[in-house]
Amino acid sequence: MNFVIRSIINLGLISYYIISFYFISFIYTLPFNQSVDKSSFIPSFNQSTKIFKYSNIHITSSQFNSILTSSLSFKFPPYSSLILSSPSPSPNSLIITQLLLHSFNPPILQSSKINTFLKQTLFIVGEKIAVWLHPYILSYMLKLQQESQSTITRLQACFNSIMATIALPRPISTGHTRSSSPPHSHPLTPTLSLDSINTSAAFPIPIPNKHLPVCPTGPVPSEKPDTPPNSPPAKELSLSQPSILYPPVNYKSRCLDTSIIYEIDAAGVAAALEHLAAQPLPDPSQVFPWFHGLHPCNHIQQAFFIQRRRTLRRTPKCIRGITIVKAGGDLTCSRLKGAITPDEFLQFGTKTEFQEVDPKEGFSVRNFQIQPAKSAMVSDIIVYGEDPLMVEELAREIAAAQQLVREAHVNQGHELSQYNTFICTSPFSDFEQKYPQIVSVDSRSRWTGKVMDFFHQERLEMCAMTKASEIDHNVWLGPTPDGISDTHPSFLEGQFDILIECSDSGQIKPINLQEIAEGRSDKWQLGFPSSGMIQPPSWAHEQADGILETCKWIYHLAHGILPEDKDGDTPTTAKIKERKILIHCTDGYTESTLLGLAYFTYATGLSVPQAWLDLHISKKRNFFAYPQDVSLLTTIAPRLLSESPALQDKSLMHITELAREEPRWIKSMDGSLPSRVTDYMYLGNLGHANNPDLLRRLGITQVLSVGETASWSNWEMDHWGKDNIMVIQRVQDNGVDPLTEEFGRCLDFIERGRLNNTATLVHCRVGVSRSATICIAEVMRTMHLSFPRAYCFVRARRLNVIIQPHLRFSYELLKWEEKLKMAQGKFGGKGRGRELEWADIAREIAEMNRPYAR
């Protein structure tokens, strides 16, 4: 008892110090011995509570002010004494623990009485806050550029060690759209549907329920890698992509001020775009790291990518793209393929010039949002629009901006290729009538379907993946049906009688189902709480009773049974009309998981772990669950099983054993299964890879580890067989390491599993970048899909977690599309090129991820 009390007190003190350390790191680490105003680094209470929430730390405003005051009066020690005290690279938690010990030096931590419990607590919290410190440690590395190489190496290793990965326990509320009103306040919640994709919907299309996990980049790349990539021939470096727009000898020119503008018609635009799509893209080594963004003031980005090689900072000459710009900027109507607005790449003022889009600070290998503007700098630009005067004026300004860019490069001793500006002289109706294949949105603001749209393609894939299916007699799981059209796929099997929508605003009210069964209500739209909303141990017994009663009445309605005698020795029932019931949510796989699993356990009499597997394997349902769902369901399992109609003839001992069934794999699971991309390929994270029991139960007998290695015992390795494990080493998620050269053996390994009728888990650390890239490459190869379509295919099947192949991986996949088409003899020539260009793809990905950005 004394140990427990002492541990609780110690834990409280440690929480205080950890919170204080967060503020200290905010205030003292960035300046590095410079005189600055500390108040500029002080976070607000509202901002900080969001961070505390993710670590389950509860704090009041008064406590916040008290901690902040004590933090401001504390002298933070220099980083060198903290980091360099580590003799060698350590796990994340150990390094952060050292930082805590050195920075606070509290008596309780110096005491010999500190116990294992406290150390373990520090290690756990160290993992949580490690990601907050990595920008500061990297900044400190830059201050030591002139010091010994050994010091730099040690700091790089330390930086690599603390690049932790943090995924939120629940998606942020602004990252998706859920029902904010009661489930029956409108006909049906707006949802994903095949009909609403192609027509204007009465409700706005909701944002899918997803979140962006943090992806670690790995160490700063070595200046002299052990195995440098093959350099392209010197002659190739000076050649740009061929284009029928350059030289512009076949186009009429006109002079506007000091600039020369060329005229082009609809036929010329269509031909230029088709020709460009059939030209091979430059090698990734020729355009990276320039595409990442290398602002002269961004020392972190430059130190990571180019270090002292200044030639990598120059604008590459090997690119010659085509940028389509609509004068006026209204892309909701009359939009051509890949068209952008002027304000996406131009800065208007006393003189018009290209925007400086490279980030001035911070570090990122996923700057998709800057790609259209960077691509415009190395493109011939075609301006079109409805007002000829507006088109001409914009073309003149663009041409002047191009001239400024050329002059700036000449002044820096780096000559840039000549890029020109064109004016489209044809009306938009010519494109609609003669070249509909490059019309994205017509003149009446209707999406044509001729040009792939990422948002719509993702929804098509989600509709196909989450189509409603029957999990038990008359009970279905699926997405929210379309409230406008009766032709939604969910209605092909017949109209549903009762819809139960699972949402954040839903409540547990089994009385509503009972009233329907007894004929006292004609409601057909009901609600239920979303998965992850009921969190043990805070839930009340009334909630457990409500879940059980909800399952009972769903079963009664689905089977047409009405209990009559509740007080007699022998219960009697009456037959009523069977109801077809749909348990649904917006995406069809998140909010409905708790109720779906609870009912499936109750109706089938399976243990919770077995129901988890059967719903996925036997019923072919993809679903996403939260850790609290695992805790809640395993806690109420005895009640669900003891009342299950399928176990009425079983003994109490048998039911008790079922309820207590808790295999090792479910103890190690956070609720979510690895994502089933195809029947023979799963995409997951390092946690999934470290759960071999779960993998076996899912029929996965091969593991492909990309850049990360699972921590298996020797017994597990021998049991699986070394031939069933492949590890791709020395590929970090740093925007520098190539992955294309590993495609061949990775895909051969996956194919071997398919031929042996087994599944392969492809994983990295988070399961969103390196491993997702491999899965996309496999989908492109086997399904003959373009990179954009394969990207949406895999993205939809990763469920709540958004895949994030970084810029270089995405570019390599676009090159992979070329290679696959060349192998099939389908690349080069009319209608035989890329479906979308690099700038278009990057812009679409940035727009898709924007709602989820924190």
TrEMBL record:
UniProt KW keywords: Hydrolase, Membrane, Protein phosphatase, Transmembrane, Transmembrane helix
Q: Identify the Gene3D superfamilies for this entry.
A: Protein tyrosine phosphatase superfamily
Q: Which Pfam families match?
A: DSPc
Q: Which organism is it from?
A: Monilinia fructicola
A single cellular component GO annotation: nucleus
Protein name per Swiss-Prot or TrEMBL? Uncharacterized protein
Check the record and name the SMART domains matching this protein: DSPc (SM00195)
Offer an example of a GO molecular function term for this protein.
protein tyrosine/serine/threonine phosphatase activity
